[in-house]
TrEMBL record:
<dbReference type="InterPro" id="IPR018148">
    <property type="entry name" value="Methylglyoxal_synth_AS"/>
</dbReference>
<feature type="binding site">
    <location>
        <begin position="35"/>
        <end position="38"/>
    </location>
    <ligand>
        <name>substrate</name>
    </ligand>
</feature>
<feature type="binding site">
    <location>
        <position position="13"/>
    </location>
    <ligand>
        <name>substrate</name>
    </ligand>
</feature>
<feature type="binding site">
    <location>
        <position position="9"/>
    </location>
    <ligand>
        <name>substrate</name>
    </ligand>
</feature>
<comment type="function">
    <text>Catalyzes the formation of methylglyoxal from dihydroxyacetone phosphate.</text>
</comment>
<dbReference type="GO" id="GO:0005829">
    <property type="term" value="C:cytosol"/>
</dbReference>
<protein>
    <recommendedName>
        <fullName>Methylglyoxal synthase</fullName>
        <ecNumber>4.2.3.3</ecNumber>
    </recommendedName>
</protein>
<dbReference type="GO" id="GO:0019242">
    <property type="term" value="P:methylglyoxal biosynthetic process"/>
</dbReference>
<dbReference type="Pfam" id="PF02142">
    <property type="entry name" value="MGS"/>
</dbReference>
<dbReference type="InterPro" id="IPR036914">
    <property type="entry name" value="MGS-like_dom_sf"/>
</dbReference>
<dbReference type="InterPro" id="IPR011607">
    <property type="entry name" value="MGS-like_dom"/>
</dbReference>
<keyword id="KW-0456">Lyase</keyword>
<feature type="domain" description="MGS-like">
    <location>
        <begin position="1"/>
        <end position="140"/>
    </location>
</feature>
<feature type="active site" description="Proton donor/acceptor">
    <location>
        <position position="61"/>
    </location>
</feature>
<feature type="binding site">
    <location>
        <begin position="55"/>
        <end position="56"/>
    </location>
    <ligand>
        <name>substrate</name>
    </ligand>
</feature>
<dbReference type="GO" id="GO:0008929">
    <property type="term" value="F:methylglyoxal synthase activity"/>
</dbReference>
<feature type="binding site">
    <location>
        <position position="88"/>
    </location>
    <ligand>
        <name>substrate</name>
    </ligand>
</feature>
Amino acid sequence: MLDIALIAHDRKKEEMVNFAIAYEHVLKHHRLYATGTTGTRIMENTALSVHRFMSGPLGGDQQIGARVAENTMDLILFFRDPLMAQPHEPDIIALLRLCDVQGIPVATNVATGELLVKALERGDFAWRELVHKYKPGIEG
């Protein structure tokens, strides 16, 4: 079971909900986290249980970023809106940077999201279990 974050900018929330509906059969086997409104919309439209952080502009991106910094988040699905300026852009860049530092797979659009979820379904993320097993300070 992996920890997966679901984040979507306002104009991408419907796309994220449709994605969650389409891949509910895969996502239901994992611990899901989301920023505020995105998590609410997913839970309203699926049977998925989602731990909700604050809204992105209010610090939700940073809360997820803290989990990434601790290497306890396994996959980020962050459907970004490249055509709309975001007031919390520095938080977004920081989150993506942390994903690069920790080697956390991140999808910023539905096409890459589908590739990663299909890999998840095939079991291609087993390497993340090793990360958790051998993480200093955590007994496996």
